[in-house]
Amino acid sequence: MTNTPLTLGVDHIGLTVRDLKATRDFFVDCLGWNQVGERPEYPAAFVSDGHTVLTLWEVQNQQGRVEFDRKTNVGLHHLAMKVGSEEALEEIFRRVSTWPGVVVEFAPENLRQGPKRHTMVYEPGGIRLEFDFDPRQ
């Protein structure tokens, strides 16, 4: 037995969303990601910022859809993304806070005593997103 991890990191993250177009447009048009693929028959879209790939699927039973409750459900609590500067964090917040369908949980603030700062939102498809800037990195 070795202590060396058998994995190399995350290949992609698959997320089921309420509205595929709204979520794809949020990542591509609001955050500047690229659409790197799609499967219209599924329906699914693949988006990337050049570091992370997200596979987005639209929920198939809208009437039976159950929204995620992070305090009672098992599953993705939130998706946290690194940001390269305080200015980028503020620009992201400026864009997402006015984007249709986005719900802001809180504006940029220190994480505990800092110096790391973050903001948390729900994108239009219902996924909770965190954007983090750590000046120590």
Query: In the CATH scheme, what's the topology name?
Result: 2,3-Dihydroxybiphenyl 1,2-Dioxygenase, domain 1
Work out the strand percent: 25-35%
CATH H level, superfamily name: 2,3-Dihydroxybiphenyl 1,2-Dioxygenase, domain 1
Report strand order across the widest sheet: 1-4-3-2
Number of helices: 2
State the secondary-structure class.
alpha/beta
The share of residues in helices is 10-25%
CATH architecture: Roll
Q: Output the helix-strand order.
A: EHEEEEHEEE
Q: Termini distance?
A: 33 Å
The number of distinct structural domains comes to 1
CATH class: Alpha Beta
Compute the number of strand runs: 8
The pLDDT mean sits at 93
Q: Major beta sheet, specifics? A: 4 strands, mixed
Low-confidence segments = none
- Overall shape: globular
From the alpha carbons, calculate the radius of gyration and give it in angstroms: 16 Å
InterPro entries: Fosfomycin_Res_Enzymes (IPR051332), Glyas_Bleomycin-R_OHBP_Dase (IPR029068), Glyas_Fos-R_dOase_dom (IPR004360), VOC_core (IPR037523)
Pfam families: Glyoxalase
Protein name: Glyoxalase
GO molecular function: metal ion binding
Question: Can you put this structure into words, describing what you see?
Answer:
Keywords: Metal-binding. It holds the Pfam family Glyoxalase. One of its GO terms (molecular function) is metal ion binding. InterPro entries: Fosfomycin_Res_Enzymes (IPR051332), Glyas_Bleomycin-R_OHBP_Dase (IPR029068), Glyas_Fos-R_dOase_dom (IPR004360), VOC_core (IPR037523). This is Glyoxalase. With 137 residues, the protein is an alpha/beta fold. A hairpin with a 4-residue loop joins strand 2 and strand 3 (44-48). The chain is built from two helices and eight strands. It has helices spanning 20-30, 86-97; strands at 13-17, 34-39, 44-48, 53-58, 79-82, 103-110, 117-122, 128-133. 17% of the residues lie in helices and 34% in strands. The mean pLDDT is 93. The protein has a single domain (13-61, 77-133), classed as 2,3-Dihydroxybiphenyl 1,2-Dioxygenase, domain 1 (Roll), CATH 3.10.180. Strands 1-4-3-2 form a four-stranded mixed beta sheet, with helices on one face. A four-stranded mixed beta sheet has the order 5-8-7-6, covered by helices on one side.
